[in-house]
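Note to self: keep these together.
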Amino acid sequence: MNFILWLIIGGIIGWLASIVMRTDAQQGIVLNIVVGIVGAFLGGLVFTGGSINSAPLTVYSFLVSLVGAIILLAIVNLVRRGSVR
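Structure:
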């Protein structure tokens, strides 16, 4: 059941991050899920020193995951285009 929650919440986080970074038209649902899960992991490492599975789902962990996904998309944009949108 946790795996399904990771996919659903990862998709939502990736979708919201792609809207914030204006890359939504370039990404599909699979890439949104990947960005959400990897962004949650990065956010967990940066902000809490842990991982995405060390705390229950709260508003704080959701926001940390969202910020991590936005940072991930900014890094990808920087590498691909040479500038952050």
